[in-house]
Every structure is written in structure tokens, then in C-alpha cells.
């Protein structure tokens, strides 16, 4: 009797025969399954299931040398090359890598599985370590490059290979449900606005949302008077990146999902459109953006001990943040005037009507 995994494996093989360049994420969508369920059908062949000892694996990623880190959500793909440095993984809830190249915020509560993947043949082989959430969504992928340490990769895979190499993946959570929003009338708007105006750190904004039980887009709608949150049109993302490239302004690009936020800090240079995607295509940083998915975009200002900090935040139709841009900055250093000028111009030219 054919198992579900065998059936799925055959369906994927048939799909690949019809669409040779189809990516696994798109194949999973077409087949009505998650990416991890599809990937698991290759266990024992091109895929090796690893032990779910995520922190131990991550502590050894530095040994791989120069790699490419990939984190994405449905609409934004963030790829950054570098070395995984300065790991901080002892906190049970949040892990960090803080390097000039690889800069990550890791949320382990949603993590469920890990795999080593070898794709292609000959000089086109791609090797990677891939991590997935309880609901089957991809959280983070680490790709070897021509500069990476292949011996270290093979040693890591051997060390963490799981005894379980079954081709069936069992999900322990369903699809992520959109956050439910309380009616505005139930929100203590006066005190919410007062607390916003008196913020001392941008990282405290998340606590503010929790305290007043507001969603992020609801918070922006209920922002204090003035220019604390200004709605702009979806073209603001493109306009911001084009201006940053033209002015050589260093920026910070945040893209995240339920288990990871990946950050690029630095300039962006080569911008290009391909099919439905707007792209940054620089040697060490690639960003692929599906602009049509932007349902809401806001210029957001938050007070800090170092002065006002300004961001462009973009959301999908469910109110999920899909990308966030800042000017390059560090704690203790005021925001760059060049970024403030840039974002103010984008705001004035792209105000939502």
C-alpha cells in the first residue's frame, strides 16, 4: 500500500518533470502541502534529517566560514553573505548573531526541524542547512558558497544526523492564523499615545503593543498626533531603495518570519525588476520583493534616548509586517540626517490619499 510520503514524492517528481525550474516552495504550494513535507520525501537521498538540537548546530555554523544566510516570508526574500559571528544562544527564547555581515534575531519557540540538503550535480551542487517551523514553513537556510569550508559542513552533518530518516514529516502546528484585532473603542488610546511619545528605546514598542492589546497596524492608525505614523503608498518601498542607492545612504533592511529576523546593514546599489519581483542584486546582499503584496505602508517615528528613529514599515493584507527599513545606526548614536531627509522626501512624494 502506497504511503502518503511515497505518493507525495511521486507527485513532486511529476511536477518537476513538467516544470524543471520550479522551486520547492512553489511546488509545495501547488501540491497543497508545506515545504518541509515535500523536502522530507527526499530523506535518505539528497536530504539528511538532523537532530533538532538547533542551538548546538548554530554554535558550529561559524566553522563553515563564508556562507549565504537566507530568511524569507511569503513576499520578501533576504539573502546575505558572510560569516556567522558573535553567537548569543543561551537565552531560552531569543538567540542572536551580531556581525557586520550576518545579523540575526532568532525566536526558537516556533522551531521544529532541521535538514542538510544537497541539490544538483557536478559543479552545480548546492549544499545547505535548512530549519523549519512547527507548521512546516521555512525559517532559515544556510547555503555553502565557493569560499565555504566543505569539510566542516560534512563533519557537522555527520555529527548531527538523526536516527530518524523517515520520508514522512508530521506537523505539530497548523497554518499561522492572522492576529485578531480588538475594536478601537476597547483600546485605551490616550495612555497608549502618551506611552508612545515617551518611548526611550525602539525595542520597547513591541511591549507597548502587548500592553494595550493592539495589532501593529492598529497601533499605527491610533498613533499620536503629528507625524509619528504617516500612511504612504506601496511605491514608498521602491522609492526609498532607489533614493538610498542614488544617495549612497547606508540603510538597515529587516525581513522576518515567525522564527527569524534577518538584517542587512549597509548600502544598496544594483536594483532591478524581474517578473513580479523588485530586487536588490549586490555581491553580498540580495533582496527580492513582491511589491504587489504590500497592502499598507507607513513611515513610523519612535522617540529614543538618542533622538527620533524613523522607519518605513510595509504590511501584507493580513496586517503581517513583511519588511522594515531604517537608516544605519547603533544604540547611542543619533539617526543620520541623510536618512531623515531621504525618508521625509519619500513621505511627502508618496503620501497615501
Describe this structure in words.
- This protein is of the alpha+beta class and 353 residues long.
- The chain folds into 2 domains: 4-86 and 111-160, Heme iron utilization protein-like fold; 184-349, 3-Layer(aba) Sandwich (Heme iron utilization protein-like fold), CATH 3.40.1570.
- It is 27% helix and 33% strand.
- The chain starts with a helix and ends with a helix.
- The mean pLDDT is 95.
Outline:
The chain is an alpha+beta fold. It has helices at 4-18, 24-31, 35-40, 54-59, 150-160, 189-197, 205-212, 216-221, 236-247, 337-349; strands at 47-50, 65-72, 76-82, 87-88, 94-98, 103-107, 111-119, 126-133, 138-148, 229-232, 251-257, 260-266, 271-274, 277-281, 285-289, 296-304, 307-315, 321-327. It folds into 2 domains: 4-86 and 111-160, HemS/ChuS/ChuX like domains (Heme iron utilization protein-like fold); 184-349, HemS/ChuS/ChuX like domains (Heme iron utilization protein-like fold).
**Secondary-structure element pattern, one letter each:** HHHEHEEEEEEEEHHHHEHEEEEEEEEH
The total tally of domains equals 2
CATH class of the largest domain: Alpha Beta
Which residues form runs of ≥5 with pLDDT under 50? Answer: none
Strand residue content: 25-35%
Number of strands: 18
How many individual helices?
Answer: 10
Structural Rg: 21 Å
Distance between the termini: 60 Å
Output the strand order for the largest sheet. Answer: 1-7-8-9-2-3-15-14-13
Which percent range fits the helix content?
A: 25-40%
For the largest beta-sheet, the strand count, sense and barrel status come to:
9 strands, antiparallel
* Helix/strand/pairing category: alpha+beta
Give the name of the CATH superfamily of the largest domain: HemS/ChuS/ChuX like domains
Global morphology: globular
Mean pLDDT score? 95
Question: Can you tell me the CATH topology of the largest domain?
Answer: Heme iron utilization protein-like fold
